[in-house]
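Researcher: Quick test of sequence recovery. Tokens follow.
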């Protein structure tokens, strides 16, 4: 189960986005609350909800982005629409929106059941609902409601990571960081945090002992090298940046890099690629997380970065424009930044990491990792159409 605060807006365009889903039979308006002033209308239209939310937002002119738009998603069909409504109600109360006017719209056009929430960041007294540590609170409230113990999950992640074959302490830490954890050394111990909270610890000596016990499979390196060589002639290998998003669609710092090649290999073979760079400079190296056979490889030991990236020069500005316009799609395992309220430095790879813990088979063709993430329904559908060489219908 995940929760995501979606992109901020000066208007309540999320109402129209969601009601369009309903009109196309891709969604259901399951609940509206706090719109008592509209009870006299015989037939409510989307614009009526927009007008009411806008009138509430107008009580505080200092709030530039009054729309609150969030999404709660289950993995696959684990939660039905009724349970998602109950969960969304409790979640809204937990983060301070229980008394606000809000709409709950269930989406049914992706592999994961999910519900969208639209409300106002301004209350009826003209006060702004606090957004302090909003994303951290959003997950804390959700985890409490679904009974997920973050410390237990983190402890299991620490132990699972120790089962990988790695040659440096930094490589071990990278496994945890790829799962969204922040790691900081304090003395001879590494503190593992998530959502701003200390959730686990791992002793340096335990990591170092694992280094001495594990060897690498040269046969696996050779196998991956052949796979890289085969796919590099089939898929675009040019590295592209993903930017942190600021207000008014301005670009911030570069968060990470990806390529069509790295995305394809990730989907087909359970490999995760971390490209190393500093500031706005092009990557100087990369690491491969092999979740199938639990290895962490220095990318250059398999194939040099120059060859893996086809000696491409990373054209930051042009590639970002293509990314924002929808010509290029981001990696499957990273949330689309223009849909986030604030840019996240976390990659959502929990299911990618765990799929292979259960020994699932990986074939030579693409299969979908279920990350329970409604990045943007139309963007996803557009990406699928491009893979099938069908015309794009998404113009957003």
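Model:
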């Amino acid at each position: 189960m995940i929760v995501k605060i979606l992109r901020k807006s000066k208007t309540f365009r999320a109402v129209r986005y969601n009601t369009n889903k309903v009109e196309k039979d891709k969604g259901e308006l399951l609940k509206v609350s706090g719109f008592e002033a509209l009870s006299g209308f015989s037939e409510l239209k989307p614009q009526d909800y927009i007008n009411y939310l806008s009138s509430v937002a107008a009580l505080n002119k200092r709030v530039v982005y009054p729309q609150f738009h969030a999404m709660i998603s289950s993995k696959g069909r684990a939660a039905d629409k009724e349970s998602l409504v109950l969960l969304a109600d409790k979640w809204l109360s937990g983060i301070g929106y229980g008394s606000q006017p809000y709409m709950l719209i269930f989406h049914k056009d992706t592999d994961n059941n999910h519900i969208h929430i639209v409300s106002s960041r301004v209350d009826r007294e003209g006060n702004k609902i606090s957004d302090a540590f909003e994303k951290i609170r959003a997950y804390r409230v959700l985890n409490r409601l679904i009974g997920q113990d973050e410390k237990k999950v983190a402890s299991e992640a620490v132990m699972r990571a120790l089962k990988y074959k790695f040659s440096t302490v930094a490589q071990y830490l990278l496994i945890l960081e790829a799962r969204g954890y922040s790691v900081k050394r304090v003395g001879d111990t590494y503190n593992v945090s998530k959502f701003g909270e200390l959730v686990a610890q791992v002793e340096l000596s335990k990591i170092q002992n694992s280094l001495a016990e594990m060897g690498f499979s040269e046969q696996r390196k050779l196998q991956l090298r052949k796979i890289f060589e085969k796919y590099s002639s089939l898929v675009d290998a040019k590295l592209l940046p993903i930017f942190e998003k600021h207000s008014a669609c301005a670009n911030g710092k570069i968060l990470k890099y990806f390529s069509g090649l790295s995305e394809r290999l990730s989907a087909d073979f359970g490999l995760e690629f971390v490209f190393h760079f500093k500031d706005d400079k092009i990557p100087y190296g990369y690491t491969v997380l092999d979740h199938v056979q639990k290895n962490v490889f220095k990318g250059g030991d398999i194939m040099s970065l120059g060859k893996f990236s086809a000696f491409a020069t990373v054209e930051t500005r042009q590639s970002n424009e293509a990314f924002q316009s929808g010509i290029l799609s981001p990696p499957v395992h990273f949330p689309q930044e223009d849909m986030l309220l604030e840019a996240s430095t976390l990659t959502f790879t929990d299911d990618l990491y765990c799929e292979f813990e259960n020994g699932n088979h990986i074939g030579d063709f693409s299969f979908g990792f279920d990350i329970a993430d409604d990045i943007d329904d139309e963007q996803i559908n557009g990406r699928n159409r491009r893979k099938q060489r069908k015309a794009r219908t998404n113009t957003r």
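The first strand starts at residue 2 and ends at 5.
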